[in-house]
Amino acid sequence: MIPYGRQSINQDDIDAVSAALKGDFLTTGPLVGMFEEALEGVVGAPCIAVTSGTAALHCAYAAIDLKSGDEVITPPLTFVATQATAALFGAKIVFADIKASTGNINPDLVESLISEKTKAVVAVDYAGQPADLDALRSITEKHNLYLIEDAAHSIGSYYKNRPVGSIADITTFSFFPTKNMTTAEGGAVASLDSKLLEKARLFSRQGLVRDSEQFRIRGQGLWHQEVHDFGLNYRLPDVLCALGISQLSRLSYFKSRRLEIFTHYVRRLKNIPNVILPKVDSGNDVMWHLFPVRVPPQARQNIFNSLRNAGILVQVNYLPAYRHPVFDSYNLKLGDFPVSDSYYAGEISLPIFPDLTDTQQDWIIDTFLGIMATEFPD
Ligand SMILES: *Cc1c(COP(=O)(O)O)cnc(C)c1O
Question: Least buried of 213, 235, 247, 340, by fewest C-beta within 10 Å?
Answer without folding.
Answer: 213
